[in-house]
Structures are given as structure tokens and as C-alpha cells.
## 1
Amino acid sequence: MEITVDYSKRDAALIARICKADQKALEMLYKHYYNQLGRFVTRVTIREDIIDEVINDVMYVVWEKANTYDNNCKPSTWIFGIAYNKARQAVRDSSRLKEESLNELDEDNLLFEEFNDNLKKLEITDWIKPALAALTADQRTVIELTYFQGLPYNEIAVLMNCPENTVKTRMHHARKKLATILINASN
Amino acid sequence: MKHANTEKPSLNSTHNIHNEVWQLLPWHVNNSLNKIENKKVKSHLKACTICQQEIVRIKQLVDLVANKSYEATSEAVIDANFSILKNRINSHTETPKAHNKITTHSQKIFGFRLGKLTQLSLPSPALAMAATVLISLLMPRLEFNSPEEITFAQFKTLSNSEIAAVKKNTVRVIFLDDTQKTDINNLLAFVNGHITSGPTEQGEYSIGIDAELTIDNVQSVIDNLKKNSNVLFAEPAYTTLITEDNCEC
């Protein structure tokens, strides 16, 4: 478990400066959050090729909407809330692309078999990635925010804009799925 | 479920507490539960081996995933990516909404259009010129050719015409411009009339009817005149057909 330090005051001050079009403050906030957002986006989307694009989308929204931050939640919750929405959008886009590419593969059985073989090789060498991939984006988000960002469930509920019980339910299903995969992998 | 404590709470209540605690375990592991919840979990963990094992599993999973953790991006890459974001921000000539709380009335009116147009990064004189060209292209081409001048003589009407001398049994008539004199004379003979004055500048004739006319037969004379294709207008010379003779006032 990573040690999380509360930088709320620092981040709130930076957001206040961003409200006054202070690009230096944006740069500081960008650098503070880059790796956290990068890891979060990677975990939720299971894609590394779009990290930079999604992070810049998130921070662009921070720049544009800084005046809408009302201090009702931690700045990190607000920023991760934006990141959650952007990551979900990316997941939707990528599923659409995957669907399209699978349709193309359906037309060529040889290519589809090759794709399956590669997937099997990947599962053998790196099971944790497919394990996380087996979860929904929402379940991965709860896992990431709980285990790796150290957020309480009520804050995750605010961030994901859903009831607290929904967060607990998503975590419950994610744990069950991961436990099953973990058992199968160890066998 | 194995409970080590000597107290024997009801099965349902124990089951409910176990389920509740089991759901809270991830947040117990990340130390984010409030004091009451934390106390409840700790108390339950003393007795429940299932939950104790689950905590071990959660920690194993966290460690496993942490080993595959995201590799921190180098400072240089972060700087390069921020430059991209900065360019994106600066490419919008309009100040972002967040930093533009005070807007003038005109900005509010044209806010949408200006917002869209300024995304083209046009300097303001170029913007004004572009707008002018756009308006001139979009405006329907109106023809402002001056119509052929209509002379006073060509404007035919009996209204407001000046009647210098109003006489009994007189009607006012305007013939078409190309009406021949002989046609007029034939028509006058038909209604037992003669020209008393005219034509005026507007082509109006005052025609005296030779017979003594009553209200009814004045109307029949006018009807006969109007049936003729050469007659443009035909009206009684009197606004009312009440003459001095039959006026009761």
C-alpha cells in the first residue's frame, strides 16, 4: 500500500491561481498529478498508448473549468473525477474500435486464430493484465482508487458520481472475479 | 464461519455483521474507514478467520499489482506533454470561460459567434473584414433599379380630385389613354351626355347628363359607362346624390 499524503491545500491554492489564468500554476499541478493520472488511466483503460492524450484532456478541463471547483471535495477527488469520465470515454471509444477490428477479423479466420494465440501467450506470461481486463472499467476504477490511491469509499462515490453502496457492490464483484482468476492462475 | 468469542449473538445478526465487515475490508486495508467502522471491523476480525484470510488475500493482490505498477514518466516527457497542452490552450485566442467571469453586454450577445470565429485565430481586423465579406455574400442581392418614373398624368384615380364646379346630373369619367374621340362621342350619345369639362391633367372628364336624373337612373348611367371597355373609372360627381332640390334639411 502506497503512503498517500494529503496535498489538498496546495492543490486548492493552485486551482485558485488557475482561475486567474496562471499557466505556471497549471504546470505545477500538471507535474504533481501526471504520474498518478497516468497510472489511473492505464489501469482503467488498460491502454498505455493513450495516456498522454487522456491526461492532457483532463488537465485541459481543469484549466477550462477551474472556477467550477467549489471546495466541496478534495481537489484530487475533483481531478480524478474528471479523469474517470475521460477514461470511460476512452474505454467506450476503444471498445468501438475493437468491435470494428473484430468484425474485420471475422472475415479472415486465419488472422483471428493468430490473434487468439497471441492473447493466450499474453495470459501465460502476464496474467494480471488480463485479470484486470476481465473487470469492467467501473470495477477497475474502484480497485485503483481504493488500493492504489487510498481513497475512502465515500470519496470514490463522489468521484464516480454514484451511491456509496454502488461503490461497495462494484468492489464486491471485482474481488470475486479477481479471486477466481487468482486461484486459476496459481493452479 | 468461526467465531472465537464466547458471546452468542443471533445467527442472522452475526451474518449481517460479517457481510458488512467483509464489504468494508478493502477500505480497512487502505486505512480510510472512519473510527466507528474501523472499530467494528477490528472487533469482527478478532473472531472471523474468513475475514482474516480475506485481508491476507487483498494484501497479496495489492502487492502483485503493485509489482506491475505504472512506470513513472521522465521529467522530460512530462515537460514535452505539457508543452502540447500549453499550445492547445494558447491556440484559443479567447480567454477560457473560467477566467472570463466579467463579460460585457456585447460579448454576451455575440459570445457564441465570436467564440467560434476566434478559434480560427484571426486577428480582429481580419475578423471584421471576413464578417463583412460573409454578410455581403449571404445577403440576398436586392435590385435597387429606379422604377420608371410615373408621371402625375399617368396616375389614374378619382379620389381627391378637385371638382371646381359641381353641377347637377354630372358624372366623372376617366377613359383609357388610347380611347378615340369618336368612341367617347358614341358613348356620350348612348348615355345622353356631353362633356362639361376636361380632360384634366389626370384625364378626368366631367360629363353632364341631359336628362333629369334620379338616384336610381344615375346609377344605371354609371353602370352603362362602366360596361364600356374604354371606361376606366366612372363615379357620380356628387358625393351623395342628394341635391338641393330633394334635400329635406
## 2
Amino acid sequence: MAGDPPADDRAREEAREEERLVVEAQRGSIDAFNRLVRRYERQVYNVALRIVGQADLAEDVTQDTFLLAYKSLHQFRGGIFRAWLLRIATNRCYDELRRRQRRPADSFEELTFEPRVEWSTLAAGEEPEARAERLELAGALELALRQLPDDQRAVVVLSDVQGYSYDEIAAITGVSLGTIKSRLSRGRGRLRDLLRQNPRHRELFARYWRRYDEEKQGEGRPS
Amino acid sequence: MNERDPLGSNGASGGQGTNGADRHLDVELLSAYRDRAARGDDVLDPIAYAAAGAHLSGCERCRATLRELDATVALLRDLPQLAPRRSFILTPELIAAAGGRAPRERRRFAWVWPVRWASAVAALLFALTVGLDRGAAPPQPTTGVVLSTAATAAITAPATFSTLTFSTPTFPDDTPPVWAFSSFTPTVYPTPTAVPTPTPAPVRTTTADLWPVEVFLGSLASILALFGFALPPLLRRRHPAA
């Protein structure tokens, strides 16, 4: 929350540290750059994973992103380093998606990684059956994500899976706030429709949002 | 209640009702409403937000759509951040395999080479000019001006760029072959005070028609030296920040 001095101080300290690392890396220090890699590799990988939908491809994209970032680091002139990095990553994802369109034999229809769910919303006291249903629903959602048009999927991933702000998404994708808003709403609407298409998923989804509703009314919504 | 403007028609209803009872908020508006309500995103102006809120309070169907959107976002947020199966740390081998060089190295080369070439060519042309001047040596003011142009260009380039921590051929000490060839008396050069008053060198009354060549070479030397100044900033401008 706003106005938490220790958290603000820590964020400011981290921003300064990151600035220093970027400058050192621009002077050619691989060690400094690798500290930035460690800081952001998980985020870059997860963005790539949800956009391209395949674990091995996401790994290639992530590695390429850091190599490309290192080579073109002299072009970075301040601003949000993470947004600059993720811009490279999403562009690489689009390259891969275009390449895959030319080679449609590559399967996009099955999960190449295990669906899991975090324990952020309904975890407390959740019954095993409910958890199994949530896992099933998460798998269906991962597959539904892949049926979105590429630009909608990218914005949904950046906003709702990764939790980045509209401004940061604008910096990453290079499109206007209005376009982001529109892609996001169409993407969410389409995901909702897709989850309701299959009778089984429709039932699970209905149960999920009913439980979510009760939970929210009980103790307030997670941000 | 005015529902006409900010509120669109829900595709599922498709109604054009006259009393607003069968009109519903579209998904885009509900999505923006949700973001403003849940995380304060400024994507919906206050009037549209208030109007949507008023409609929602009386429309069960739109409330249900909003809850579903909300649940979809919550489900997306629940997707885990997966740990990559390997590290993406860069090694010198990986960078070399990708055909990369350290950024600092790349940047320095972009600056150094045009400057070096410009300085070297300016030096050569200047020496030639001096040689020709000595051969022709008409004690005209024009010659002094031309000489000073070439001299300034040749001297300024190395003196200025030496601050960029690389070495260029310096004048006049580092060019013994040229000076030996021209056997020019060093007292005239390179003191700038010599510029307004050209030293009356030992007059060789050969043809004075060579001075246009001097003008040409002197100008060329100046242009090349200027090119050395101007090119690196131009290179930088062609690759602006991402």
C-alpha cells in the first residue's frame, strides 16, 4: 500500500542499484549484466511462456532476449529497464509466433508444462476436491489463452497474469492506452466465453466464480 | 437515468429497448469498470464510471457478467510463475557465439575510426600543402589564409580528440617522414600567431599558379577533419534510445 516508508525506501534502493548495474553493464561488465539476468529471468521466461505457449520455445526466447539486450544495451537511455527488456522479449515472441504460422505442424494444442495454481485467492481451507477442480480449470485457461489473437494474448498476459500497470504495458508493447484497454477487454471477454463453451469447464468456472464471490465478500478482494 | 451514451449494448441482448430495461453494459466497459474499481486504473472517466455503477446496481445480468470477468482475471492471476528449467546467465562464449561484442567496445570503435582517418588524411594533405607552398611560395596573403585553414584543421582534430583517450598522430613531432620530405622550417608552424602574418619565406620565384590546388587541398583537409567531428554524433543519432 501507499505510504509505507520501509517499502518505499527499499524500492528506491533497488531502483538505484539497478541503475548502477545497467551503467556497469553498458561499460562492458558481464557480471553486472548477469545480476540483471538473475533479477529478471523468471519474469521474462513467464511472459514468453504464456505468449508462445511452449516451455522449450520460451527458454530460447528468454536466452535470445538477454543476448540481444546485452548487445544493444548502449541503446538503452534510461527509463524502466524491465519494460525495455520485456519489449525485446515480446518482439522475440511475435517473431516465433510468425515463424510457427509458417510451420503449422508445430502443436499449439497441448500443454507442454504442468498446469498449477497459486494459493493466493482461495487457498485457505480449500478442500482437495476444490483444488483439483481449480487445477483442471487452470489447464483449460492455459489452453484458452492460446486461442486468443496474439496481440490480445500478450496484453492479457502482461496485465492479468503478470500484473503490470497500463503504463508499463504501453511502454512494453508501444501501443496506446486506448488500444491496450480494448485488447484487454476483448481478450478477457473471449476467455470467459471460451471457458463457458465446454460444458464441463462451464460448470467448473461457474463454481469457481461463485466461490470467489463468497470469498471476496467474506474478506475483501485481493488486488 | 441516462444510459444511452457511456453504455453500449451487450452483444447477447442486442436489444434497442426504449426504456433501457433490455440494454446492458458491453464487455469493454465492464472490463474498464472492473480495473478502475479493483486497482484504480484511470481507464474510465468518472462520469462513465458513475453511470456504469448506477446501471449495475439495478441490473443483475450485468452484475453477473462483471463477476465472471472478475473471476476470469482472478483465475489468470492465480496462474503460477513457473521456474525456468535452466539459467540464462551469459558467458563470454555465449556472447561470442551470438556474434556479440561488449557494448563499450562497439561504441568506442564507432567514435575512433572516422576520427582517426580524418586526422590522418588531414595531416597528409596539410603536409602536401606545405610542400606545394614551399615549391610555389608566392608571398600573397591568400596563401597565408589557405595555409592557416589547413593548419588549423590538422592541428585542432588531434588536440580535441585527445580528450577521448585514444592517440592520434600528433603534430608536428610524430610525422618525421613528412617533415623530412618537405624540409620545412618548423619555426613557422604550428604557432597560431603565425597565421595573420605569413612568414616571408625564402622567395622562390617559380610559378604562382599552384595556389588553387592549395585552396582545394586545404579545404578538403578541413572538410575531412570536420567530418571526423560530425560523424560520431550522427552515428549516435541514427540509433536513438529504444
